[in-house]
Amino acid sequence: MMPDLPNRTERERQLAEALLLQFQRQGEAIRSAWPRSPDWKGMERDTHATLAAVLAGTFTEAASGMHGAPDARRWGQAWADGYASILAGEIVATTREDVASVSGTSPAEEAAALAAVIAALAMRAENIAVTETTRAITSGERIAVEQYEMSTGTRFRPIWQTELDARTCDVCRPLDGTGEEVFGRVAPTGPPVHPRCRCYLEWEVIAA
Ligand SMILES: [Zn+2]
User: From ligand 1's centre to the CA of 160, what distance in Å?
Assistant: First the structure.
């Protein structure tokens, strides 16, 4: 039961587009402040807001899909707010390190190195969107399943599912169809197991 989120592609695209806009603005801010520091704190705040808004929606939808969990929205907001803080901090820290490493023997070389860092920032949008959409879905389903188990006594076991197509990698293919006793050794909390992982869990009833 409970297949992958029906509109995951749309959710993924929504996050990728929001992040891309955000990163393009950050790139502009970095370029115009150079060689001074841009407002890193402000960037972290904006990145947090973008991530939290979209991931809360994805989490909520995934949780609601599991027996229509009534508190899904509240859980989604709490989870996304907390997780987006960590993630936004990491994203901006990486950008900051990349900018700090910019150097060149001439102003032109330095400008080219800075342009490369800014371009790389924009390219991270899709990568982050795919990975974090997967994480929001797994997290939403997990909390909904836990709550449902507590209130009904029904027990479920998660089964790892890959999309058996070109996107499936060597890490994920052997996990397809396995239970937590197997996938838990590689990915204790479920998908994603690596950047750009699009795997998901199916929940099998084991006892009522
Ligand atoms: Zn995967």
Answer: 9
**Residues at Cβ < 5 Å from ligand 1 ion:** 172, 197, 199
Residue 29 in any domain: the answer is yes
What is the C-alpha to C-alpha distance for residues 102 and 33, in angstroms, rounded to an integer? 14
Within a 10 A sphere around the Cβ of 70, how many other Cβ atoms? 11
Whole-number Å distance, alpha carbon 191 to ligand 1 midpoint, is: 6
Q: How far apart are CA 58 and CA 62, in angstroms?
A: 6
207 located within any domain? no
Q: 145-174, pLDDT tens digit by residue? A: 999 999 999 999 999 999 766 566 888 999
Q: Which domain holds residue 125?
A: 8-152
Q: Of 158, 197, 203, give the one whose Cα is nearest residue 8.
A: 197
- Domain assignment present for residue 198? The answer is no
Q: What is the pLDDT of residues 74-120, one digit of tens each?
A: 999 999 999 999 999 999 999 999 999 999 899 999 999 999 999 99
Q: Is residue 88 part of a domain?
A: yes
Question: What's the predicted TM-score (pTM) here?
Answer: 0.93
